[in-house]
Amino acid sequence: MLFLRKDFLFRNSYCTFVIEIKQIMNFTHIFNTGYEVMLAALISNITAQIAKTIVNAIRKGAFESHMLYSTGGMPSSHSSTVTAAATAIGIVSGFDSSIFALSVIFSLITMYDAQGVRMAAGHQAAILNQMLRELFSQHPTLKFKNLKELLGHTPMQVLVGAMLGIGVAFAWHFVLQPNIGG
Known about the structure:
Blueprint: H1 2-26, H2 34-60, H3 77-93, H4 98-115, H5 117-137, H6 155-180
Helix pairs in contact: 2-3, 2-6, 3-4, 3-6, 4-5
């Protein structure tokens, strides 16, 4: 009897697991929720990073895998991510909601920082690298590691990232959702 009881519990757990997997694969529970906002932001970030890698490969004529997770470059994945999240919040909660207004404010701060403060830090890193190269050239036994210079974005990179984020959020909600089953 005990064996049947364990088998029965296992089968119930298995059935529950299968039902939950089917619900997850259905995707219907994520639309018009916070999950939609997170997925729009994630998809936008991944799209921007892939686009950045492709643009870099075209410009340099060589594929550099580190660009898939690098900061700086065209388009801005920071801008893309925050504008996708803000746009998805607007779609889900309403463009007249206070949470949308707050998300726009934080998006603008992030984009300003990406093209202002972080860009200036990148320029300073370039100057420091040049100074260190000159200093270390007189002492060949000493080694140094370059500071990362590609930190920020130009205004155009931020703008393209923002447009990408808005486009991804609308595409996710109005194009992909009906086709996936939402």
